[in-house]
Specification:
Elements lengths: L7 E2 L2 E3 L2 E3 L5 E5 L6 E6 L3 H17 L7 H17 L1 H12 L3 H21 L6 E5 L3 E9 L2 E5 L5 H15 L2 E5 L5 H11 L9 E3 L4 H10 L5 E5 L2 H11 L5 E5 L5 E4 L5 H13 L11 E5 L3 H13 L19 H16 L3 E4 L18 E4 L6 H4 L6 E7 L2 H9 L3 E2 L1 E5 L3 H10 L4 E4 L14 E2 L2 E2 L4 H6 L2 E9 L10
Parallel strand pairs: 1-5, 8-9, 8-11, 9-10, 11-12, 13-14, 13-19, 14-17, 16-17, 19-20
Antiparallel strand pairs: 2-3, 4-5, 6-7, 7-23, 12-22, 15-16, 18-21
Length: about 500
């Protein structure tokens, strides 16, 4: 498949109008070739402020929040239909800017359509309750939209993760300012451009591209913004939490991970091996829930790892537009250097590099940021590669003795986002899942079955939940209305 030779140009969407920025532009490049693929605004604080003002004006007017849930549902369903109709073109844009294989890009977009469709339905199922009902008084508990929401989206799954935020925000009746990553601003704005065709009042959906230090900081601290939803590193999440305290904004943080896969000796190894392998090497390990730590029971360790290394070494690394590619490049030169720095750290601290570990530079590889599947064995808990999020195709493998040992090793991290468990024994599965301190545990599989279930972490992996009805409730406020029915004017004492 031939890539476009001229980069596409994009603008911000503010108050229903497409606008440039006095800050100039930012160029994003194909991580497989280094070629420019999109030019987006380098927005300034004034642009973010204007977008927040338009979102505030739209929310306060009730042009969206006062619509019937069925009307909001219709728009969300139409968004899902648009994605499905344009999935091939959007997939190419996503692969060009992010680097992931075209099949994975297509899967991401179809997931986004599924999420938006789910929230189209969920918007009609927000119900209150009447906890107090008597002849004298009645209490109503109702749910109302939070208000203006800043949606700060990462580059690793820019459309899918945007749908996790945009779907529930719009379903709840909120207005939004989308802040895409500078690495994937083009495909993010292409998506916003697509859905802007629908009959959504001006100012309900706004999007501004630029650096997090400039526009992200403005949105986080703005008194016009009622909520921030962020996906990214734990370090940036802390900064956002501190900044949002200026007016006690509601905050959703989906932050770092160091997920563990546990393979017991009674597992179906024909399923566990590819499952554990793709849990780390999918998206070149650039996923918050990547299974970057693998624990294999001692009795099967040698045989399992021999087969694992053979399978990982056969993964086809290349340009995501090539149908044969199974794993694409890292997103940027900076990310590649970060990953290779961790590889050096692992070697210096005494871990045994049993596969990969060097940049691929032969032929067309030299034009991009390619690091092959990399495996460390002989790893110890204290090592940086075992404790810190690498965000690349680097796997740390340890043997373990029994259930207690597996739980102890798995919980030895400041993160608690997700993990995999491979076993045929239901009692064992239940004992281990109860012991793991993590927000999601996939048993004999990897990744969520769909948008109906919540996702989010324990410990320093974040706050709140996305997807599921729990994700929708994050965009709602709870109000108590107390109705006095009698004519009594008795003073309440308590």
């Amino acid at each position: 498949m031939q890539a476009e030779t001229v980069p596409r140009e994009y603008s911000n969407l503010i108050g229903g109008k497409w606008k440039g920025s006095q800050g100039g532009t930012i160029e994003s490049r194909n991580p497989a070739t280094g070629e420019p693929v999109a030019v987006s605004p380098r927005s300034m604080a004034d642009d973010a402020r204007e977008a927040a003002e338009e979102a505030r004006r739209a929310f306060d007017s009730g042009s969206w929040s006062s619509k019937r849930p069925s009307d909001r549902a219709k728009v969300l369903a139409q968004m899902a239909e648009l994605i499905r109709a344009q999935v091939e073109g959007l997939s190419v844009r996503l692969t060009l800017e992010n680097g992931k294989p075209l099949a994975d890009a297509r899967g991401e977009l179809l997931n986004a359509a599924n999420v938006l469709e789910y929230y189209a339905s969920a918007s009609r199922h927000v119900v209150g309750k009447i906890p107090r009902y008597s002849s004298a008084d009645v209490s109503l508990v109702v749910h109302e939209p939070v208000g203006v929401c800043a949606l700060i989206v990462p580059w690793n799954s820019p459309i899918s993760l945007l749908s996790w935020k945009l779907g529930p925000a719009l379903a709840a009746g909120c207005t939004v300012v989308v802040k895409p990553s500078v690495n994937t601003s083009g495909v993010s704005l292409e998506f916003v451009k697509l859905i802007s065709r629908l009959e959504v009042p001006p100012g309900v959906i706004n999007a501004v591209a630029g650096s997090g230090e400039t526009i992200g900081n403005e949105l986080v601290k703005s008194p016009l913004v009622d909520k921030v939803s962020f996906t990214g590193s734990t370090e940036t999440g802390r900064e956002i939490m501190a900044g949002a305290s200026s007016n006690l904004k509601k905050v959703n943080l989906e932050c770092g991970g160091k997920s563990t896969g546990i393979v017991f000796d009674d597992a179906n190894l024909a399923v566990a091996l590819p499952g554990a392998m793709w849990s780390i090497f999918r998206s070149a390990g650039q996923s918050c829930n990547a299974g970057s730590r693998l624990l294999v029971q001692e009795s099967i360790y040698d045989d399992f790892m021999k087969r694992f290394r053979e399978a990982a070494s056969s993964i086809k690394v290349g340009n995501g537009l090539d149908p044969a590619t199974e794993m694409g490049p890292l997103i940027s030169a900076g990310q590649m250097e970060r990953v290779l720095g961790y590889v050096e750290s692992g070697k210096e601290q005494g871990a045994r590099l049993s596969l990969g570990g060097e940049r691929l530079i032969e032929g067309d590889y030299s034009r991009g940021y390619f690091v092959p599947p990399t495996i460390f064995e002989g790893v110890e808990r204290r090592m940086r590669i075992f404790q810190e999020e690498i965000f690349g195709p680097v796997l740390c493998v340890l043997p373990f003795r029994d259930e207690e040992d597996a739980i102890s090793i798995s919980n030895d991290t400041r993160f608690g986002l997700a993990g995999d468990l491979w076993s045929r024994g239901l009692p064992r599965i239940m004992r281990v899942t109860q012991g793991l301190r993590t927000g999601t545990i996939w048993v004999n599989r990897h990744l969520n079955p769909g948008p109906e279930v919540p996702f989010g972490g324990y410990k320093q992996s974040g706050l709140g939940r996305e997807t599921g009805m729990e994700g929708l409730m994050e965009y709602l406020q709870t109000k108590h209305v107390s109705l006095q029915l009698s004519e009594s004017g008795d003073r309440v004492r308590r």
